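[job 0412] stage=fold_complex status=start
inputs:
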Amino acid sequence: MINVIEPGFIATIQDGGRNGYYHLGVPPCGAADKLSFQIGNLLLGNPPFSAGLEITLTGPTVVFEKSTVIVVTGAPANVTLNGKQMAMWEVFKVKKGDALSISYSTKAVGVFTYMCVSGGITVPEILGSRSTYTLGDFGGFLSRKLEKGDAIPISEPLPGAFNRVGKSVEAPYIPRFSKKVDVHAVMGISGNEISDEGITKFLNNEWEVNLESNRVAYRFDGETIPYKDYEPPFGSGNSAGGVVDFAYPIGAILVPNTEEVIVLLNDATVGGGFVMAGTVISPDLSFLAQARPGSSVRFHAVTVQQATQLRLEQKKQLNDLVEQLQ
Amino acid sequence: MLSLPETRFDFCGDEYIFAQITNDMSAESNFKAIAITNELRRRNIPGIIEIYPANASYLVRYDPEALSPFSLLDYLKEIDITKSDESELNMKCKIVEIPIWYDDPVTKEYSIRFNERNKEITESNFDFVMKLNGFKDKDRFIDAHSKVPHLITMLGFTPGTAWTYPLGIPREEIIRAPKYTSPRTQTPKLAIGIGGAFSVIYPTQSPGSYQLIGMSAVPVYEHQQRLEAFKDSIFLASPGDLWKYRTIDESEYRSITKEVEDGTYRYKMKDVHFSAEEYIRKEEKYLSELMEDF
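[job 0412] stage=fold_complex status=done
writing structure:
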């Protein structure tokens, strides 16, 4: 068990997410920054998507009830064990009774920090995943963020776990956390509704992450994106920017009105009737999720071939890392 | 053959293909979306992660490391052609009765409270939608909404939310409503709302942008699986099912919600074979045959 002494801002249990239920309205959930999350698990010798703790901005303080090995990855944070400073991206041992604290770093970049533990967190799976889905009221620990007094079950350390102590990653494997974030998107679908000028303005300008952003979606402020002068189709509700409700991909770039851009993340509302300008490619969702409110994001158009290429490059880097850690 | 234009395909990022059957809504578009996605599911293709029928479109998520996007696109186009014939559009489904307390005080209170997000509307959502659709009489409006079966055309938004679309009436008779200009931050659990040409029941307390016209007495999503109807699935709706709304008064609402609380409520339900071909040919007549003993 891990006992929660202080819950911090928002800490939830996440893994690789749940597949196969999207058409019933269940979004995948899962770690927002899958890249940092996977690196944490790989460092420990875990399967890449073993459940861990996803920490938003700051918190928690937890006490371990057994000896095991852990690692903290993701957005820069201040990590201490019994008050002693610990390095991120490096595996260390915790003993029974040790108190781990994760708090704000003065670097003030990134959003999500991950605490992975040998063998993973072992709350029960629901619909094939341990990820917390707060809106749907299931998964994780009691379907919610951690609260003071929670006791979170963890696995026994895996065979050889203690031999991993001291394993670490360095650049270039550590993702870059910055106030300026670049992501790639495949544009499309919007041909009937958004003007060419709108698409150009979307791609040629920086977009500031709005405070009203969370695991469901990030909102952005920037330019205006004019719509085409089109007749809203039957069934759409007859307002500008309306289309017949459809299923959104994760990463969907929605333009609900000419002043606002929304990108859907892993806890997305699964379908709706807003115009969609394109889709952020899956390997870049990790970088987008780490764009803290106030950061600026640039969207770069790519073809589906380029998107697949970028995906394979990210995968190759992870594979290289696995080899190095052998 | 169905009188539908050619489906439009788009790549969305590296993992999705979106297929738009038509940009406007029709029952035919939805039958085709369901038929194609049923067929795709039956084929069980390795590398396909999600198959999602929507109102007049569908979405497929795939693993591009297991399946080339371009091969999948060609493959979907082939299935699309074979399912453009209405004789291919038969499905097993169930008819379910949903008791609704129309124009109830709770949704009325919410609709007034959130009206600043709703264009220049000052009356309740129920009155607004009733008048907008040319009704002066409350009972006539309720009758128009509840007399025809509604097709489940899509699930989504939040778990268990089902879009329902009326069958058997001409387009101009379908009750319609604009969505809120800015979504309500709250919608009461089990409120029924109308947006565009669709009615939905909100399974849980959530944001929402449809005009609220009443309250369902029965749940549409139950992850604790207490009621008999949720033993096999935590969702009441499945694409292609038919829902029949039935108007109830306050006292019946109270007695049904009591049964739901006690875990004894039994939904009125019937399994049927739905033939889109016969529906397209005979419309209302086919529906009344189908609904005969319901």
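[job 0412] summary: The first strand of chain B starts at residue 8 and ends at 12.
[job 0412] exit 0
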